[in-house]
Amino acid sequence: MGRGRSGLGNVFGAYSRTGRNEVMPCPPYSLLSASTKKPSISSSNTLTSTVSSDDGLSPSELILRARGKQAIVSPLTDEFSADVLSQLEGVRVIANVVVGFDNIDIGAATERGILITRTPGVNTDTTADFAFTLLLAAARRITEADTYVHSGKWKRGAIDMLAGLDVHSRTLGILGMGRIGQAVARRGTGFDMRVLYHKSGAS
Predict the structure, then answer these.
(1) Cα–Cα distance measured from residue 115 to residue 92, given in angstroms and rounded to the nearest whole number
(2) Which domains does the chain have, with CATH numbers?
(3) Whose CA is closest to 33, among 1, 85, 78?
(4) Rg of the chain's alpha carbons, rounded to an integer?
(5) What is the rounded distance in angstroms from the CA atom of residue 115 to the CA atom of residue 58?
(6) What is the pLDDT, as a whole number, of residue 157?
Protein backbone atom coordinates (compact mmCIF):
# COMPACT_ATOMS: atom_id res chain seq x y z
CA MET A 1 0.00 0.00 0.00
CA GLY A 2 1.39 3.41 -0.97
CA ARG A 3 1.90 6.32 1.36
CA GLY A 4 -1.17 8.54 1.32
CA ARG A 5 -1.70 11.97 2.80
CA SER A 6 -4.79 13.06 4.69
CA GLY A 7 -6.27 16.36 5.76
CA LEU A 8 -5.30 15.83 9.40
CA GLY A 9 -1.88 17.35 8.90
CA ASN A 10 -3.53 20.68 8.14
CA VAL A 11 -5.64 20.60 11.29
CA PHE A 12 -3.23 19.99 14.13
CA GLY A 13 -0.31 22.26 15.09
CA ALA A 14 2.53 20.30 16.65
CA TYR A 15 3.79 20.89 20.19
CA SER A 16 7.48 20.69 20.98
CA ARG A 17 9.64 21.70 23.92
CA THR A 18 11.00 24.58 21.87
CA GLY A 19 7.50 25.99 21.54
CA ARG A 20 7.52 25.76 17.73
CA ASN A 21 4.30 25.06 15.87
CA GLU A 22 4.82 22.62 13.03
CA VAL A 23 2.56 20.78 10.64
CA MET A 24 3.08 17.27 9.32
CA PRO A 25 0.88 15.00 7.17
CA CYS A 26 -0.95 12.15 8.86
CA PRO A 27 0.64 8.75 8.11
CA PRO A 28 -1.37 6.15 6.19
CA TYR A 29 -2.06 3.81 9.13
CA SER A 30 -4.13 5.60 11.77
CA LEU A 31 -6.17 4.90 14.91
CA LEU A 32 -9.10 7.25 15.41
CA SER A 33 -9.61 6.83 19.14
CA ALA A 34 -11.83 9.92 19.31
CA SER A 35 -15.43 9.01 18.54
CA THR A 36 -16.53 10.68 15.31
CA LYS A 37 -19.22 10.11 12.69
CA LYS A 38 -17.28 11.99 10.03
CA PRO A 39 -13.55 11.13 10.19
CA SER A 40 -11.28 13.78 8.71
CA ILE A 41 -9.18 11.11 7.01
CA SER A 42 -10.30 10.81 3.41
CA SER A 43 -7.33 9.37 1.51
CA SER A 44 -8.28 6.23 -0.40
CA ASN A 45 -5.08 4.47 0.67
CA THR A 46 -5.41 5.35 4.36
CA LEU A 47 -6.06 2.34 6.57
CA THR A 48 -7.95 3.50 9.66
CA SER A 49 -9.27 1.87 12.80
CA THR A 50 -12.03 3.77 14.60
CA VAL A 51 -13.42 3.62 18.13
CA SER A 52 -17.16 4.26 18.46
CA SER A 53 -17.16 5.18 22.17
CA ASP A 54 -16.49 8.53 23.84
CA ASP A 55 -15.10 6.78 26.93
CA GLY A 56 -11.63 6.35 25.51
CA LEU A 57 -9.51 3.22 25.71
CA SER A 58 -7.87 1.48 28.64
CA PRO A 59 -4.05 1.28 28.48
CA SER A 60 -4.18 -2.36 27.35
CA GLU A 61 -6.83 -1.63 24.72
CA LEU A 62 -4.90 1.40 23.51
CA ILE A 63 -1.72 -0.61 23.06
CA LEU A 64 -3.62 -3.41 21.29
CA ARG A 65 -5.53 -1.12 18.92
CA ALA A 66 -2.41 0.90 18.11
CA ARG A 67 -0.50 -2.11 16.76
CA GLY A 68 0.55 -1.49 13.18
CA LYS A 69 -0.54 2.14 13.36
CA GLN A 70 1.64 5.17 12.76
CA ALA A 71 -0.77 7.86 14.00
CA ILE A 72 -3.36 8.13 16.76
CA VAL A 73 -6.15 10.74 16.88
CA SER A 74 -6.98 10.81 20.57
CA PRO A 75 -9.39 12.46 23.04
CA LEU A 76 -8.38 13.56 26.54
CA THR A 77 -9.72 10.29 27.98
CA ASP A 78 -6.81 8.31 26.51
CA GLU A 79 -3.86 8.23 28.92
CA PHE A 80 -0.43 8.00 27.34
CA SER A 81 1.89 7.21 30.24
CA ALA A 82 5.58 6.44 29.78
CA ASP A 83 4.73 2.73 30.02
CA VAL A 84 2.04 2.95 27.33
CA LEU A 85 4.24 5.05 25.04
CA SER A 86 7.07 2.53 25.33
CA GLN A 87 4.79 -0.11 23.82
CA LEU A 88 3.48 1.93 20.89
CA GLU A 89 5.83 0.47 18.33
CA GLY A 90 5.80 2.39 15.05
CA VAL A 91 3.60 5.24 16.28
CA ARG A 92 5.04 8.52 15.01
CA VAL A 93 2.36 11.07 15.92
CA ILE A 94 -0.42 11.43 18.50
CA ALA A 95 -2.98 14.07 17.54
CA ASN A 96 -4.65 15.13 20.78
CA VAL A 97 -8.13 16.51 20.04
CA VAL A 98 -8.03 18.87 23.03
CA VAL A 99 -6.44 22.20 23.92
CA GLY A 100 -3.87 20.74 26.32
CA PHE A 101 -1.84 17.57 26.71
CA ASP A 102 -2.21 16.60 30.40
CA ASN A 103 -3.01 13.04 29.33
CA ILE A 104 0.39 12.54 27.66
CA ASP A 105 3.85 12.12 29.16
CA ILE A 106 5.57 14.69 26.91
CA GLY A 107 9.06 13.76 28.10
CA ALA A 108 8.57 10.08 27.31
CA ALA A 109 7.04 10.91 23.93
CA THR A 110 9.98 13.19 23.09
CA GLU A 111 12.46 10.46 24.00
CA ARG A 112 10.70 8.07 21.62
CA GLY A 113 10.50 10.65 18.83
CA ILE A 114 6.69 10.71 18.88
CA LEU A 115 5.26 14.03 17.71
CA ILE A 116 2.43 15.36 19.88
CA THR A 117 -0.14 17.75 18.43
CA ARG A 118 -3.08 19.57 19.99
CA THR A 119 -5.82 22.03 19.04
CA PRO A 120 -5.14 25.32 20.88
CA GLY A 121 -7.93 27.87 20.70
CA VAL A 122 -10.39 25.52 19.01
CA ASN A 123 -13.02 25.95 21.76
CA THR A 124 -12.32 29.57 22.73
CA ASP A 125 -15.34 31.19 21.07
CA THR A 126 -17.61 28.22 21.76
CA THR A 127 -16.79 28.37 25.48
CA ALA A 128 -17.25 32.16 25.53
CA ASP A 129 -20.63 31.75 23.81
CA PHE A 130 -21.72 29.25 26.43
CA ALA A 131 -20.46 31.42 29.30
CA PHE A 132 -22.50 34.34 28.01
CA THR A 133 -25.48 32.05 27.50
CA LEU A 134 -25.34 31.10 31.18
CA LEU A 135 -24.97 34.74 32.17
CA LEU A 136 -28.07 35.73 30.18
CA ALA A 137 -30.05 32.72 31.44
CA ALA A 138 -29.23 33.52 35.07
CA ALA A 139 -29.94 37.23 34.74
CA ARG A 140 -33.24 36.69 32.93
CA ARG A 141 -34.24 33.66 35.05
CA ILE A 142 -34.77 31.55 31.93
CA THR A 143 -34.45 28.13 33.55
CA GLU A 144 -36.64 29.17 36.48
CA ALA A 145 -39.30 30.51 34.11
CA ASP A 146 -39.20 27.36 31.97
CA THR A 147 -39.72 25.17 35.05
CA TYR A 148 -42.55 27.39 36.27
CA VAL A 149 -44.42 27.29 32.93
CA HIS A 150 -44.03 23.52 32.53
CA SER A 151 -45.23 22.90 36.10
CA GLY A 152 -48.68 24.16 35.12
CA LYS A 153 -48.64 26.87 37.81
CA TRP A 154 -48.64 29.75 35.35
CA LYS A 155 -52.21 31.01 34.97
CA ARG A 156 -51.74 34.66 34.13
CA GLY A 157 -48.91 37.11 33.62
CA ALA A 158 -47.75 40.01 35.74
CA ILE A 159 -45.67 43.01 34.75
CA ASP A 160 -42.72 41.96 36.92
CA MET A 161 -43.16 38.18 36.89
CA LEU A 162 -39.80 36.47 36.47
CA ALA A 163 -38.52 39.57 34.68
CA GLY A 164 -34.99 39.13 35.98
CA LEU A 165 -32.31 41.74 35.42
CA ASP A 166 -31.08 43.66 32.41
CA VAL A 167 -27.64 42.65 31.20
CA HIS A 168 -26.94 45.59 28.92
CA SER A 169 -25.01 48.49 30.49
CA ARG A 170 -24.16 46.38 33.56
CA THR A 171 -20.65 45.66 34.88
CA LEU A 172 -19.07 42.39 33.77
CA GLY A 173 -16.37 40.90 36.02
CA ILE A 174 -13.92 38.41 34.55
CA LEU A 175 -11.39 36.37 36.54
CA GLY A 176 -8.64 35.33 34.14
CA MET A 177 -8.08 37.31 30.96
CA GLY A 178 -6.73 34.64 28.67
CA ARG A 179 -8.18 33.75 25.28
CA ILE A 180 -11.58 32.79 26.69
CA GLY A 181 -11.73 35.74 29.07
CA GLN A 182 -11.00 38.13 26.22
CA ALA A 183 -13.66 36.47 24.06
CA VAL A 184 -16.21 36.90 26.87
CA ALA A 185 -15.17 40.56 27.23
CA ARG A 186 -15.80 41.14 23.52
CA ARG A 187 -19.31 39.78 23.93
CA GLY A 188 -19.82 42.04 26.92
CA THR A 189 -18.89 45.13 24.91
CA GLY A 190 -21.63 44.17 22.47
CA PHE A 191 -24.06 44.62 25.36
CA ASP A 192 -22.52 47.99 26.29
CA MET A 193 -21.13 46.47 29.48
CA ARG A 194 -18.35 47.90 31.60
CA VAL A 195 -15.71 45.19 31.75
CA LEU A 196 -13.52 44.69 34.84
CA TYR A 197 -11.02 41.85 34.95
CA HIS A 198 -8.26 40.28 36.99
CA LYS A 199 -5.31 38.64 35.31
CA SER A 200 -2.56 36.92 37.23
CA GLY A 201 0.66 38.88 36.83
CA ALA A 202 -1.06 41.81 35.13
CA SER A 203 0.33 45.25 35.88
Answers:
(1) 6
(2) 7-118 (3.40.50.720), 124-198 (3.40.50.720)
(3) 78
(4) 23
(5) 21
(6) 87
Among the ranges given (49-53, 60-64, 140-144), the one the predictor scored with the smallest mean pLDDT: 49-53
Asked whether the CA dihedral 23, 7, 98, 88 is positive or negative, the reply is negative
pLDDT in tens, 84-110: 999 999 999 999 988 889 999 999 999
pTM above 0.90, yes or no: no
Sign, CA dihedral 139-144-149-150, equals positive
- Angular region, 5: left φ>0, alpha ψ -120 to 50, beta rest: beta
Instruction: Determine phi and psi for 83, rounding to 5 degrees.
Output: -65, -45
For 43-57, how does the pLDDT look when each residue is reduced to its tens digit (9 = 90+)?
A: 334 455 666 556 678
Check: CB of residue 114 under 8 Å from CB of residue 94: yes
How far is the C-alpha of 172 from the C-alpha of 99, rounded, in Å? Answer: 26
E-only strand ranges, the chain: 13-15, 29-32, 47-50, 71-74, 93-96, 115-118, 171-175, 194-198
Distance between CA atoms of residues 90 and 203, nearest Å: 48
Max CA-CA distance within the chain?
72
Residue 54 amino acid letter: D
